[in-house]
């Protein structure tokens, strides 16, 4: 009878999700030490008296997700120490009196998402419950008088997501200890007088997402301890005098997302402790003197997204302690003088997204403590001199996205401590000394502006500027000494700016610069970042760089990287890079360079990487690379280079990697790379037809050579590679070789390890032997995913062209003969299969006895295929590559499949059997040895 008879020491038991329909009384009688019992997600319809008999130590009981409709009297007897009871997500609609009798220690009761209709005295016996959840009970539309009797210690009550339409007087009788009441998502329309009588200890009240249209006077009577009241997302359109009478300890009041259009004077009287008031997203169009009377301690006021047109004098006189004022997204076009005079503790003022038009002199008078002022997108056309006078502590000023066209001297007088300034959009003129009074500014943004160039001395006085952003601007020319006076500048941004010319000395004085960038990089987490010591002028429209333009950027003790990719440069001049002594990498790819003057890079003795790919270079002279004594990587890919005569790379005695791919080279002269310590050389996609026999002499360290996609056809060319004693990787793909001499590839101190021979003219009949030779030489070859029939082991080849007579009779005869052979082979296979009855027979005996016939059939199929191959040599021929290949595949596939089936029966997944015929090899692998090595 007792299911858990031998589990007396068990502490935790879960029988959840088992489709239980009933639990007999006494089932848990022997579980005297059980602490946690989970019965959730079953099909219980009733809890019988005595069900939990014996569970004297249990403190947590889960009965959620059942089919319970009623709770009988004494249903939970036998649970003297339970603390948590979960009855959520059932079908409870009726709870009988004394149903919770015996749960005197219960602290948390969850009755969410049932169909309960409250009756008086339902909760008798739950004297110690601290938290009661009733949310989501669809039938609970009314709170009856004395509905919460018996819950003397209750502190948290959840009545959210119900259908309550009104709160009757006395509904919360007996809940003297309640501190949190959640009633969001109901259908309450009016908060009547003394709605919350009896809740003298309440601290948090949530009434969001109801249908409240009116708050009667004294609706919150007796709520003397409430500190947080949230009435957001309702339908209130008017606040009247004494609306919040009784809330004398209230610190936070949220009235956002309503329809409030009128606030009568003294509406907030009595809220002497209020610190934060949210009135955002309403329909307030005007603020009168006295609107905020009584709010002497208010520090945060949010009036965002209303319809306020005018800020009048004395409106904020009643909130002298205000620290944050949010007025963004209104229709403000007028701010009367001295409107902010009394706000001498304000730190943040947001007036963005308004219609301010002109910032007049002393418009912010009185805001001596403001540190953040946001005026972005406020349709400001003009900023008068002295507009910010008196804002002495301002540190962050945002004037972005305004149609301001000109910044004149003394515009920013009065903000000596300003650290961040944003001025993007429409600015076309910056007068000299425009920022003269801003010695503390560290970050300046002038993006989206119409400046064509920067005037002289425009940044004079900004001695502490560290970040300067000209992104998305019309700047086209960087003049000499453009950044004069910015000795502390660290970061200079030109994102999406089409600069065409950089004059000599453009970056003079930037001794602490860390990066210049035109591109925002993102890391793997999507966070934007910039790379220190990278000077990135990527994809501008630069067509000219004056000699010495980058002077001062290449600090010798730092590794510097210069990116000029994607511009419109035509030539590189001598001394273009003077002053970049510390540069390690220069990238000039994807320009239109067709000329590089002698000694263009002569001062770059630390340069290790140079990219000139994707240009129009035709001729390379040795003098171009004068001075590049440290260069290790040179990329000249995608140019128009026709010749390497004259040993153009002779001075690069540390060059390790050279890329000459996709040029117009037709031949390699003798000693083209003489004495270069090259490790990696790419000459793919040229027009190479021949090499001088000494082309690769003097390159003792070459390890990787790519000469793919050329016109090489002479098999003897490979002998010219013999001087490359350290060559390990060779790419010969997509040339015109008909054969590859593996003996040449095996010569050298370290033999070649990897080769690519795809896309050549190797006949298919010769390819198997070539691949076998490569394997024997332990040279790996690259395989391609080929779908055509002109391939073997994923290596392409040229199928043999055979001739057939016009008549289809020969083809018919061939198919007929093959069909006969295949049928005969099938008979042999069947007889072998039926003849084998003992799977334990010795494997050698099986081979000797049964497979002779099958070998004979394979020989006949091979001879037949050869006859078809050699049939008729008449001039009139048909291309039968597919036909020939199809016949061979049919024969081999058939034999393999049938033979493998028999073989598995015979020897059980362990032995390899090989038949060799001429130069072909058929390998049949069983079990785990089904693949073949490449």
Structure description:
The protein is an alpha/beta fold. Among the domains are: 370-471, Ribonuclease Inhibitor (Leucine-rich repeat, LRR (right-handed beta-alpha superhelix)); 476-637, Ribonuclease Inhibitor (Leucine-rich repeat, LRR (right-handed beta-alpha superhelix)); 641-799, Leucine-rich repeat, LRR (right-handed beta-alpha superhelix), CATH 3.80.10; 809-924. The chain is built from 5 helices and 58 strands. The protein has a 22-stranded parallel sheet, with no helix packed on it. An 11-stranded parallel sheet has the order 39-41-43-45-46-47-49-51-52-53-54, with helices on one face. Strands 33-35-40 form a 3-stranded parallel sheet, with no helix packed on it. It is flat and about 110 Å long. The chain starts with 11 loop residues before the first strand and ends in a 10-residue tail after the last strand. The model is unreliable at 802-810, 871-884 and 906-934 (pLDDT under 50). The chain crosses the membrane at residues 882-903. One of its GO terms (cellular component) is plasma membrane. Pfam families: LRR_8. Keywords: Leucine-rich repeat, Membrane, Repeat, Signal, Transmembrane, Transmembrane helix.
Spell out the key features of this protein:
single chain, 934 residues, alpha/beta, Leucine-rich repeat, LRR (right-handed beta-alpha superhelix), 5 helices
């Amino acid at each position: 009878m007792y299911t858990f008879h031998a589990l007396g020491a068990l502490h935790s038991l879960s029988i959840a999700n088992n489709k239980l329909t009933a639990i007999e009384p006494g089932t848990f009688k022997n579980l005297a030490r059980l602490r946690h019992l989970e019965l959730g997600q079953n099909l219980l319809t009733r809890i019988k008296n005595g069900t939990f008999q014996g569970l004297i130590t249990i403190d947590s009981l889960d009965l959620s997700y059942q089919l319970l409709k009623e709770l009988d009297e004494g249903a939970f007897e036998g649970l003297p120490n339970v603390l948590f009871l979960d009855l959520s997500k059932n079908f409870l609609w009726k709870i009988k009196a004394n149903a919770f009798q015996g749960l005197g220690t219960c602290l948390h009761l969850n009755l969410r998402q049932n169909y309960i209709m409250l009756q008086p005295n339902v909760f008798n016996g739950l004297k110690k419950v601290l938290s009661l959840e009733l949310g989501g009970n669809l039938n609970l539309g009314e709170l009856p008088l004395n509905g919460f009797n018996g819950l003397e210690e209750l502190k948290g009550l959840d009545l959210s997501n119900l259908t309550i339409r009104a709160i009757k007087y006395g509904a919360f009788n007996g809940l003297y200890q309640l501190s949190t009441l959640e009633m969001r998502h109901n259908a309450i329309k009016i908060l009547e007088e003394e709605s919350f009588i009896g809740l003298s200890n309440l601290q948090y009240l949530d009434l969001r997402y109801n249908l409240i249209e009116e708050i009667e006077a004294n609706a919150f009577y007796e709520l003397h301890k409430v500190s947080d009241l949230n009435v957001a997302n309702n339908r209130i359109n008017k606040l009247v005098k004494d609306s919040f009478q009784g809330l004398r300890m209230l610190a936070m009041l949220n009235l956002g997302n309503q329809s409030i259009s009128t606030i009568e004077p003294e509406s907030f009287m009595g809220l002497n402790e209020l610190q934060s008031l949210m009135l955002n997203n309403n329909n307030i169009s005007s603020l009168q003197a006295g609107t905020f009377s009584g709010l002497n301690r208010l520090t945060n006021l949010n009036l965002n997204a209303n319809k306020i047109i005018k800020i009048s004098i004395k409106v904020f006189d009643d909130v002298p302690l205000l620290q944050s004022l949010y007025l963004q997204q209104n229709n403000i076009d007028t701010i009367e003088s001295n409107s902010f005079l009394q706000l001498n503790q304000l730190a943040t003022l947001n007036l963005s997204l308004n219609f301010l038009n002109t910032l007049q002199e002393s418009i912010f008078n009185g805001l001596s403590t403001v540190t953040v002022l946001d005026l972005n997108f406020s349709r400001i056309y003009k900023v008068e001199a002295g507009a910010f006078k008196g804002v002495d502590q301002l540190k962050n000023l945002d004037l972005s996205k305004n149609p301001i066209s000109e910044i004149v001297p003394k515009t920013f007088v009065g903000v000596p401590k300003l650290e961040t300034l944003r001025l993007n959009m429409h600015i076309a003129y910056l007068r000299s000394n425009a920022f003269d009074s801003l010695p503390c500014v560290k970050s300046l943004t002038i993006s989206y502006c119409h400046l064509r160039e920067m005037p002289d001395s425009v940044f004079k006085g900004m001695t502490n500027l560290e970040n300067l952003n000209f992104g998305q601007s019309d700047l086209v020319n960087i003049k000499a000494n453009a950044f004069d006076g910015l000795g502390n500048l660290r970061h200079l941004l030109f994102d999406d700016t089409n600069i065409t010319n950089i004059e000599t000395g453009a970056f003079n004085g930037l001794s602490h610069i860390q990066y210049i960038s035109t591109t925002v990089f993102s890391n793997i987490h999507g966070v934007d970042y910039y790379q220190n010591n990278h000077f990135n002028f990527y994809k501008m429209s630069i067509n000219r760089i004056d000699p010495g333009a980058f002077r001062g950027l290449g600090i010798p003790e730092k590794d510097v990287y210069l990116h000029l990719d994607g511009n419109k440069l035509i030539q590189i001049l001598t001394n273009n890079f003077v002053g970049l002594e510390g540069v390690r990498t220069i990238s000039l790819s994807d320009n239109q360079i067709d000329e590089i003057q002698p000694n263009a890079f002569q001062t770059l003795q630390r340069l290790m990487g140079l990219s000139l790919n994707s240009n129009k270079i035709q001729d390379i002279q040795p003098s171009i690379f004068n001075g590049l004594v440290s260069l290790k990587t040179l990329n000249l890919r995608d140019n128009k280079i026709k010749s390497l005569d004259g040993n153009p790379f002779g001075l690069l005695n540390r060059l390790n990697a050279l890329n000459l791919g996709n040029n117009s080279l037709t031949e390699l002269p003798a000693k083209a790379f003489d004495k270069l310590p090259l490790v990696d050389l790419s000459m793919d996609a040229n027009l190479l037809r021949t090499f001088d026999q000494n082309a690769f002499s003097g390159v003792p360290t070459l390890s990787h050579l790519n000469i793919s996609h050329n016109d090489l056809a002479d098999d003897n060319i490979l002998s010219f590679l013999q001087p490359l004693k350290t060559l390990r990787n060779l790419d010969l793909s997509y040339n015109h070789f008909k054969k590859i001499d593996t003996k040449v590839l095996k010569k050298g101190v370290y033999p070649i390890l990897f080769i690519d021979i795809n896309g050549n003219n190797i006949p298919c009949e010769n390819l198997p032997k070539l691949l076998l030779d490569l394997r024997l030489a332990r040279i790996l070859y690259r395989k391609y995913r080929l779908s055509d029939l002109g391939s073997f082991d994923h290596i392409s080849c040229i199928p043999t062209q055979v001739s057939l007579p016009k008549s289809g009779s020969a083809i018919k005869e061939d198919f007929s003969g093959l069909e006969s052979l295949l049928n005969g082979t099938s008979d042999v296979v069947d007889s072998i299969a039926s003849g084998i009855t003992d799977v334990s027979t010795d494997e050698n005996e099986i081979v000797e006895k049964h497979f002779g016939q099958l070998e004979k059939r394979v020989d006949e199929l091979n001879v037949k295929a050869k006859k078809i191959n050699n049939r008729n040599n008449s001039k009139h021929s048909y291309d039968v590559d597919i036909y020939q290949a199809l016949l061979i595949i049919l024969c081999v596939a058939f034999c393999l499949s049938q033979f493998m089936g028999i073989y598995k029966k015979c020897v059980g997944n362990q032995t390899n059997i090989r038949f060799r015929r001429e130069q072909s090899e058929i390998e049949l692998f069983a079990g785990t040895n089904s693949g073949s090595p490449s």
